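> call design_seq(struct)
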């Protein structure tokens, strides 16, 4: 799909933002990264690719009348489902609680590909806010991206699941370069330390037997910050309500690296 899209001229770079487990702040990160990149002058769209348990609308305090589900079922055109979000970017929201999207059917596969084909020429960056874990729906969504960003926290369960996700993506999709963003760190430098620990485990248990080593690029760290909880409770972007907070500064730094 990427080669076909590239032949049409300008196309957005697609980043899948995923995680091994829920609750690590993946959707919060996706929305605020999009806002930070939009402030850099990029045309950004976030596609809520957590098709069964969508919550991007909650984070952004949006009440969509038309969702991806309506596009998939032919009730509305794709253009009608793309709406502006606070922060200067666009969103394509999924309907929540749709049991039919809990597994990957040929129809869902084809519809996802078609949606991305249509939106890709219109933006500079597309962020796919995927579901958590390694279900077939999540892995297929990740496979449509140019690059993968894994979000993790320092908690042992998060790191264990992040490793499992990295292993599956590397071995099933042939990816050798992934990015890591560590959320909720308690001290400066903890994220880079965690990246080093994960890289050691990947070097020992994943890379052997592959034709090339799997490399984790450190995108950045976001400190544990009470401003995050306040922003989430307000259903506002952190960059809008607490732009000078440590967590907001971490987001902006990560977005700058991602945009480069």
């Amino acid at each position: 799909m990427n080669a076909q899209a590239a032949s049409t001229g300008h196309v957005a770079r697609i980043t899948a933002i995923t995680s091994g487990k829920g609750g690590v702040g993946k959707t919060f990160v996706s929305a605020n990264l999009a806002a930070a990149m939009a402030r850099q002058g990029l045309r950004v769209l976030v596609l809520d690719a957590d098709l069964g348990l969508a919550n991007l609308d909650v984070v952004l305090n949006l009440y969509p009348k038309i969702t991806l589900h309506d596009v998939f079922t032919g009730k509305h055109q794709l253009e009608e489902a793309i709406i502006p979000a606070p922060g200067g970017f666009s969103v394509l929201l999924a309907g929540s609680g749709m049991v039919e999207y809990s597994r990957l059917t040929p129809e869902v596969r084809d519809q996802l590909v078609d949606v991305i084909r249509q939106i890709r020429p219109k933006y500079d960056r597309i962020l796919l806010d995927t579901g958590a874990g390694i279900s077939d729906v999540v892995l297929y969504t990740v496979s449509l991206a140019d690059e993968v960003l894994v979000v993790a926290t320092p908690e042992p369960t998060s790191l264990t699941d992040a490793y499992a996700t990295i292993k599956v993506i590397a071995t099933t999709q042939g990816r050798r370069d992934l990015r890591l963003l560590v959320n909720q760190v308690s001290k400066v430098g903890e994220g880079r330390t965690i990246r080093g620990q994960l890289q050691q485990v990947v070097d020992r248990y994943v890379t052997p037997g592959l034709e090339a080593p799997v490399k984790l690029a450190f995108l950045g760290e976001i400190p544990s910050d009470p401003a995050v909880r306040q922003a989430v409770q307000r259903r506002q972007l952190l960059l809008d309500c607490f732009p000078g907070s440590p967590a907001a500064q971490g987001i902006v730094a990560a977005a700058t690296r991602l945009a480069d």
